[in-house]
Amino acid sequence: MSLALRDVSRTFGGVRALTDVSLEVNRGEVVGLVGDNGAGKSTLLKIVAGVIQPTGGDILVDDLPVSFHSPHDAREAGISAVYQDLALAPQRDVVSNFFIGKEMLRSGFAGKVLRRLDRPVMRQRVVSELNRMKTTLPNIDAEVRYLSGGQRQSLAIARAASWCERVLLLDEPTSALGVAQQAEVLSLITRVAETGIGVLFVSHQMADVLAVCDRIVVLRLGKVVAQINAKTTSPEELISYITGAATPLNTDTTEK
Amino acid sequence: MTTEAVTITVKRVAGSRNLLTAGVLVAICLVFTVLSPFFLSQANWINTSTTMTQILLLGIGQTYVIIARGIDLSAGATLSLSGMVSGAVMYNLFAPYDTVPEGTAALVGIIIALAVGLLVGLVNGFLIAYLKIPAFVATLGMLGIASGASYLLTNGQSLSGIPPIIGEVGNHNVVGWIPVPVIITAVVTVIAWYVLSQTRFGERTYLLGDNPDAVIRAGVNDRRHLLTVYAISGLLAGLAALVAMGRLSTASPTAGSGAELQAIATVVIGGASLYGGRGTIGGTVLGAAIVTVLLTGLIIIGVPPFWQVITVGIVLIAAVFLDQQKEIRAARK
Ligand SMILES: Nc1ncnc2c1ncn2[C@@H]1O[C@H](COP(=O)(O)OP(=O)(O)OP(=O)(O)O)[C@@H](O)[C@H]1O
Ligand SMILES: [Mg+2]
Asked: Of A94, B207, B246, B318, which sees the most CB atoms within 10 A?
């Protein structure tokens, strides 16, 4: 498998935010992560993204144990995240935003010595990446502040997916969007997975999770209480696990 | 409006900002031409264009800083200090200039002025980028330190014993019309334009001002970038000190006093946003021209000199106000 967590725990002072969490994300698979407020979803994502470190347990990438000391380490291992604030520069155009920190220079003297940006190639790359993910933005020369919320979210996801080789982490990417824009972002998530990337997707919206996920992991008070096949479950079942009304019974137990 | 239409409107607005600034400049020139027959003379052209070099050099440094969401209030004081240290070294080590070749003395002075400016800029950058002191506070403190130090050097006296060649070059006009400082400044302006609009460094300066978190998260060394930005501002203040010395053949501890106001006004009139992420070298050139023409034009028509500073202050506030109104109106549409 692409990414696996084995008994990952994290405490904040006395607070046990995560206790012995084990889960897997395979290539091309969308895994949903649901749970009540404070269940530990964001904490889990931050650990996988290298933003914070676990206090126990192992992270495996392609079956090899890794430890991430920074987001940079995680990115090196092919794991990228889209955060809720999206990290876009509103007064720059789509092309600039796509390449933050990865700007391309011209070849030869103009690039090596004069450090000149290769805007035509950067622009071309954005067009082809958006095509590859079958996403359209109305105008890639527009300043990002003139895009809608859904378009911005799509841009942030497409950007992260474009630079990501293994697993893409999404923390509530649809929470601030209208219905049509949610659909737009959800179908982008599906297409990102179709390119072979694994997606770990946090959401409070049961309908969204059921629509795009292959598997759903339910966290409750920092523990995994269920891992369910998304094709055979219902919003009611999910909610009963989230609230603690149901206890782990007919779940696909993780093989150790 | 469709997004397409919005974009086109936005581009037109951005382009028209420089057009508007240019229009204001022409209008101001026309008024002065009517008020004084001397305004369009060769002497006034040479005086105005040389004055503009100092303002523009500081303005260019300030453009980088302001785009990166900072401010450099110490630019004028850095100019004074660079000039005074350079002047004092040339005066104490070399005068009279028959013992050491004058050119050597001048060369040492030039290097020292640039080095002092660069050093002050690096200190500013270190305080802001690494010690996380707000730019406003760090450079305001540096304004006090640098101007105090430039007075201390000579107890507030000007130094006129600098190598004559500096004054000769500084006042030389190529083909009678183009002062040497103008040529130097033009070269610097072209380089500054290229770096800001065409290179990765420029791109990241805009990004850093627009959303620092996004740049940091992308793994860019934001602190080193910010340090460089303030170093550029300091270095250009050192160069401006040389221009000022060349013009008056004197190093003065008041050479740059109040110049930070002019520099900031220049950048803001040129369309930069004090919230970062916005501004162009072209706009700054136009802004510098407006500020300079106001300064020299008011003298020509006989307005008492104190009014110059008041006028620049008013124009600065008016420019910010008008830009904000435009933003608000654009947002309402
Ligand atoms: N930096 C921190 N310091 C102390 N406690 C923290 C910190 N980050 C998270 N916690 C605690 O860890 C627990 C899990 O928080 P987390 O943000 O992961 O929840 P979540 O599932 O993302 O919730 P939500 O749905 O509200 O986003 C909470 O009790 C929270 O208060
Ligand atoms: Mg959360």
From this structure: B207
